[in-house]
Amino acid sequence: MSQISTPASSAPASVSTAGRPDATAGPTPPRLEFLATVAVDVAEPVEVGRTHRGLRRVIPISGGTVTGPGLNGRILPGGADFQLIQSETASDLDARYVIETDDGDRLYVMNAAYRTGSAEDISALARGERVPAERIYFRCAPRFEVAGETWSWLESTVVIGSGRREPDRVIIDLWTVC
Question: Is the pTM here over 0.90, yes or no?
Answer without folding.
Answer: no
